[in-house]
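Cross-posting from the modeling subforum.

Setting up a comparison between two proteins and wanted a second pair of eyes on the formatting. Protein 1 (sequence, then structure tokens):
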Amino acid sequence: MKIWLKKLKDFFKGVSKHPRFINVLSLIMYYYSRWVGKTTRWDIFGVNQLYQVWHQEKAIILVIWHGRAMMIPHFWNGQHPLNALVSLHKDGRIIAGFLEKYGFGTIGGSSNGGANSAALALLHSLQNDTAVAIIPDGPRGPRMKMSISPLYFARKSGKPIFGATYSVEHSLVAKSWDAMLLPPPFCRGVLHVTKPYYIPADASDEDLEKYRQEIEDEMNTLTFKADRRFGLPKIEPGAIAKSKKYPAKEEMKK
């Protein structure tokens, strides 16, 4: 029995890496998010300012929590080019396919691989007036903890950072490290966008940490506020993905 279970597991593991399987999952995500986006009654805060600044600056840096990424593409107006940073593993390829169906460009890379080439590609995008989207707590966490990398890009390019988050009533919360929100259609929702954060070119590492904490705090405050509005449980920051490929930081220290 154990042999058959292992063979079945190996079969699905192999199938899950097949390009057609990845494309099917990307399509399902795309059409579902479009359906939810169009049937949800949204209250939207901060988007007008985002697009005003985007128009003035030609490009921005958009940061989104891993667990709140699914619905954000719905609010993109398609008038400004945008490249999204995606991880290189299987989940990243699914997300890349999903975003490309919305018309986003994608750049492959993460802290676990392809970081240098991805960083150069992101800076090149910003210098050529193409916005970039980054998930600063991906691909494995800690959940809702802001990494420092977007601030380096902001300091180097002079482009502002915006954070975006949302919530939808009656949503399910996945039992995953990122506590991904799974919103249903035909409900009420709210989208929050932070104020713009400009990072001075001469900002020290201490300054960057202060900005990093400020952005993280505002994104989490808006996320808590949105969830509280619909009676959803408060999701605490800090969880880390556990996998053989990406071990927890505590395990890496041993």
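Protein 2 (same layout):
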Amino acid sequence: MEKIFYSLIIIVLLFLIIVLIIKNNNKKNAPKEQNGNVFYLGTYTQKNSNGIYKYVLKDDGYIDSLGLVAKAENPSYLAKSFDKKYVLAVSEIQDGEVKSFKIKDDSLEFVSENSSGGAHPCFISINEEGYVLTANYSSGTVGLLKLDEKGMLSDLLDVQQHHGKGITERQKSPHAHSAWFEKNGENIISVDLGTDELLFSIIDHKRQKFVSSEQRSLKLVPGSGPRHIAFYPGGNWIYSVNELN
């Protein structure tokens, strides 16, 4: 009986050791923990970067890299659709492009692409209806597209061409740097670094074209070079981030 008892103890211990080994191996092979805020990072790809990368900001304040999730050329600015199912990315190249990707667990799955409406797009935004704005820096244009519920981008619907110049060496022509929907999702503010202007418009939904607002533009300090804006939470104020002054 004593031998049987010790044999049972040995069998139980061996079983527990095997269970611990299996658990340890599963932990090693499991994907990285993604507790925290997941975000995507666009890059310029002339050197070592290859496209869009995924990161997680953990509860302890540390950031973990989850690696490359989509290959793309110069995806310098990104935006998420309102339903959080898709990522939109510009390709900041001479023949500017916009790409859409479906968000998967470990990757971004390419869905569609189309023209951004100009050269070197550096900004993209989207409203709840799926209308997409692009700011094309070198051509001084803002493009209008639409994203459907399956993540497909429409053909280019319209292009808003900016005109004029500023007083500095970097302001010899228009340079659209960003284009924003106001909080109501309807009014649009386009920011032009080259002309020191904010330009106001809305979308004619029937024609799916840009229409200038009653106040067409607001001139800022000459040589200021506005780049981006931020909205005060109440919606009554905006702040301009200027690059040149």
